[in-house]
Design brief:
Blueprint (H helix, E strand, L loop, with lengths): L6 H15 L11 E6 L10 H19 L3 E3 L3 E2 L4 H10 L3 H18 L10 E2 L3 H17 L2 E11 L4 E3 L4 E2 L2 E2 L7 E10 L5 H6 L9 H11 L1 E11 L2 E7 L10 E4 L4 H6 L4 H10 L6 H6 L4 E9 L6 E7 L10 E4 L5 H10 L42 H15 L2 E7 L4 E2 L1 E2 L9 E4 L3 E4 L26 H4 E3 L6 E4 L3 E2 L1 H4 L3 H4 L12 H6 L2 E7 L5 H15 L9 E7 L2 E9 L5 E4 L4 E5 L5 E6 L5 E9 L10 H8 L1 H10 L7 E2 L2 H24 L14 H24 L2 H17 L5 H18 L4 H10 L24 E7 L2 E8 L5 H10 L1 H7 L4 E7 L3 E6 L1
Parallel strand pairs: 1-2, 1-24, 3-4, 12-14, 24-25, 26-31, 32-35
Antiparallel strand pairs: 5-6, 5-9, 7-8, 9-17, 10-11, 10-16, 12-15, 13-14, 18-23, 19-20, 19-22, 21-22, 26-27, 26-30, 28-29, 29-30, 32-33, 34-35
The structure holds one RNA strand.
Amino acid sequence: MSKTYDPQQIESAIQQRWQAQGAHRADRGEGERFYCLSMFPYPSGKLHMGHMRNYTICDVISRYQIMQGKQVLQPMGWDAFGLPAENAAMANKVPPAQWTRDNIAHMRDQLKALGFAIDWDRELATCDPSYYRWNQWFFLRLLERGVAYQKTGVVNWDPVDQTVLANEQVVDGRGWRTGAVVEKREIPMYYLRITDYADDLLTALDDLPGWPERVRTMQANWIGKSEGAEVVFECGEHRIEVFTTRPDTLMGATFMAVAAEHPLAKEASQGRPDIEAFIESCQQGGVSEADLATQEKRGIDTGLKATHPLTGESLPIFIANYVLMSYGSGAVMAVPAHDARDFEFALQYKLPIKPVIGLPDGREYDATEWHEDYATKTGSLVHSGPYDGLSCAEGFEAIVADLEKKGAGRRTTQYRLRDWGISRQRYWGCPIPIIHCDDCGSVPVPDEDLPVVLPEDLVPDGSGNPLNRCESFLNVDCPKCGRAAKRETDTMDTFVDSSWYFLRYTCPDNSEAMVDHQTQSWMPVNQYIGGIEHAILHLLYARFWTRLMKDEGLVQISEPFEHLLTQGMVLAETYYREDDSGRRQWFNPKDVETEHDAKGRVVSAHLISDGQAVIPGGVEKMAKSKNNGVDPAELVARYGADTVRLFSMFAAPPEQSLEWSDAGVEGAWRFLKRMWTGVQAHVDAHPSVDASRGEGIERQEALDLRRQLHEAIKKVGDDFGRRYAFNTAIAAVMALSNEIAKFEANNEAEVALVQECWEGVVMMIAPVTPHISEALWNTLGHNSSVFATGWPRCDESALVRQQITMVIQVNGKVRDRMDVAPGLDQDSIESLAKNSENTARFLDGKTIRKVIVVPDKLVNIVAT
RNA sequence: GCCGGGGUGGCGGAACUGGUAGACGCGCCGGAUUCAAAAUCCGGUUCUGGAAACAGAGUGGGGGUUCGAUUCCCCCCCCCGGCACCA
């Protein structure tokens, strides 16, 4: 190998060696299996830093597990259907299929340059008929079982383009291309009964100790199980059913509110143009929950009255835009005194607010301003007639019991989770295998006619799904009666594709079945890695889909992912200039230079090309709109993959956001160069040395170095294997390297120690920087691969210290330190501490009240 | 709006179970090497005062528990992720 570190030459040579040896094929040996998976990428064009980070984390864990002797499966594929391909098609007049496949080819090359231990033989793309035919096949099974069904759903409708918009395409209630005010529209769609699995998906979260707590909490809240009661209010001959989690506040209900889509709203609008206009106005704007929840609360009195089931009081019924038809029954009993949304509405429409729960510490209820504790469940009932004095829990029971007696309600459980609508009015997705026949209705495509292949030559133009105009796709004979019929043109939500791809990796070539016996031998995925933005939807759907496949007898597990790691975003500094109209022009960090003051603070920045000032705009997520993306391919070309991998693992722990820094990349590069020259210098001076096992090492410096090596082995193994704290693992290896460089070997035993240390460094950094590690492992005299050597073992005997430094505190402040033998008894520690020079000054004239000793760490003397 | 997470030197971060705040890296300052520069190497670097020893302050803000709090509890501010058709 070369005397100077030449990453391009090393990396291509090592990658060729891996390729020739089939080093990353997963199906080779016996032994414990480890399935290490990252969320597959959407093929957007080129690899970005977020991908790079995700796959590096996955590769580090995979390679660490390989060094633990496991059979590791690390696959890769493409989440290849979706909206961006249609947008690109509109912009470039290129069919989504071609655009997508070109992107895949390019990104595959970029991934390969990074040296990941991926088994490329298992690559799949969800836009391939060989993959999505199983979406279709399984959908038909779900239809047979009644898990899939049809009902109407509400979508964003752009009245100008005459097309359905994604929530992302609705900006401030208007279509992003046309600027037209979006309307809500009901259309028929296919749904999956995920709500039947709500309780199971919720309770099984407790069986996922390998998932981050926050993800489990978010999923639990999303499913949103609430115990409460259904209460019936009568309105003429109508019965309005409402769900409430707080039946204990029923005596405080002062009005009712129904959604604009509620049947009662429609009835109230008869002969009332004002109500009709209000309902119509509610149809404007997008359907996303964030939009609905942040819009101004508006309502209108229907003039109808409901009867309070316990008091017989007459309550006005409002139509309100904050009541959602999709949750519960689309109607609420409003208790403004104890619900923030009802409170705001009551204030606005001057409706009575009647407190029925006493506030803690006997405070007066102030009906002019909402306070968080108005929603308390800890007070007791007041102004509630026969229920006065009961606690909220007792009131809940008593009121529900009375409602049940009267047949006006019952205890019930409600979920926030809604059934999963999988129909999309889009072209670039998996066709839903249904044929619409005038005589036979919606007819499933027979299994033998699968897959329903998506034509790949269409180019969407923004005016709806081009499949609707594709006669060769549309026209088909009805499988039942044989007469002319039309294919369904809706395609499936791309979350369907991503709900089971991890199963298909285990048997990608099986053309006879969706999954097979190999699936069981790899599942569940031992470690899943992906962005926190997928914490709810993708992960919940994948858990649900796995259960559906289990119910179909295709797999034997319910939970697909044993351990989950959610990686943070990749950020970079932004720079901009503002023109006269306030419009910002953004500059890429690589085109900008910064000036510092004497303390290193950034004081100004300028564009390299024209030398004129630019304004630092803060650190933001890498995005096209801010032009702050850093291209991993460029960095790999300049520094090699190992440097880029090293920096991205070193700069932050995987779960946190990572701030990109070119200077930081330089630092990683310098470390690898130092490691390279350090090993070369050692081997040049002492070729063919066997690594020490501690014999004959006597000098204190040598004992200290060996202790640091074995402390590092212990720490790095723990950081890689348990904590996934790659940044601190790398820091420990860097610190050890610095110590080795300072050390001068005086005899043979010490030369062997240096050999042992460098071997340790090379092995420990190997999961992060595999190419240089392979090369240096050979330089150190080994013919094998560093990944075949196993993980270095910690020699506990090397960890023993002669002396440790203890901290002496007086009243919690560090005043002195002392060197003592480990395990020194409490009394000796106390007396040493009291007599230490600096400590005495602070004890002078004071009485010692207490002495706390933390063995081998610290003494705290409390004195007044 | 609702749910979840975060805030520590000039910067990225460390401190894992309540026990020495700032490991490691970047930047900056000083020095060596060099005709010079780049590269490399050595030393310093939380802030304030001090020549130093050392002292005081300090983990977004305010309060609390504790011998001791970045860590636990309460309130507040700011930033980020998700909200069911972006993936």
